[in-house]
Amino acid sequence: MSAAGDRLQDTARRTALALPGVSRSRPFTPRLDVYKVAGKVFLIVTDDPDEQIVTVKCEPEEARAHMRAHATITPGRYLDKRNWITLGPGHGITERLITDVVEGSYDLVVERLPARDRPRPR
Asked: Which of 21, 22, 66, 103 has its CA 20 to 30 Å from the CA of residue 121?
């Protein structure tokens, strides 16, 4: 079952906040929730009811595969289009997929942090 926009956003937020060392802020605009680990962004969630999307970091090859498989996954909005993807509600965008891409984004950021800055494993 595909996730509606509000469920997509809620799932992304819940997933992010369950991960160790995550902070949430709105440094850019009041309508963008930014989730970071050790000061590095791994998730952006819009609060705009007309544009219910989430943006995550992703390996370029994986990003291309997601975009080929899902019409509502596009190059990342707001950030580098090669290393970020944006997910909108639509066919095949499930809560499991959302959880997987948020956790994957977090893991990408954490693995690139110096060991001293990494949160405890989940």
From this structure: 66
